[in-house]
Design brief:
Length: about 150
């Protein structure tokens, strides 16, 4: 397998593809329900890329932050970052790049859309993962705020 294919195979579990797909599809469905009929395929493509990139980036950043506890839990210890198949520095760079791409594209499409995408990323990475996750079981409430941003 070539290098790019191998990297994609390693990062696929880090973006939690099913969760990411669900959030992307709810974001697209929200847009389509508000803008029916959808006439602009360029806008749909921009939404798809910006949502996929920002959600994937935030998920990678969450796993980068939690790599120490992921390495100790049976359910998560085989993830590529927790098991050492991907270096923390590389994962951080990829997570930040995808996040910046997603937020940047969203802001270029519409400032309010960019603010909403940034807010979702901020709540997920900073508020939920970095600040509250290890402090309180109520952190999941704030994690849910970020999960609701794509439909917003």
């Amino acid at each position: 397998m070539n290098k790019l294919g191998e990297k994609i195979r390693l990062y696929w579990p880090l973006i939690k593809s099913l969760q990411t797909g669900l959030l992307v599809s709810t974001g697209l469905a929200g847009y389509m329900s508000a803008r029916c009929p959808v006439l602009n395929l360029g806008t749909m493509a921009g939404l798809l890329v910006s949502l996929f990139a920002s959600i994937s980036g935030s998920t990678i950043l969450n796993m980068w932050w939690d790599r120490d506890i992921d390495a100790k839990m049976g359910r998560t210890q085989k993830r590529p970052l927790a098991s050492g198949k991907i270096s923390p520095g590389e994962a951080l760079r990829v997570g930040l790049a995808l996040s910046a791409l997603g937020v940047g594209l969203a802001a270029a499409m519409d400032v309010l859309y960019g603010v909403i995408i940034f807010a979702g990323l901020f709540f997920d990475v900073v508020v939920y993962s970095m600040w509250l996750k290890r402090r309180t079981c109520w952190s999941i409430i704030w994690g849910g705020v970020s999960g609701g941003m794509p439909i917003l």
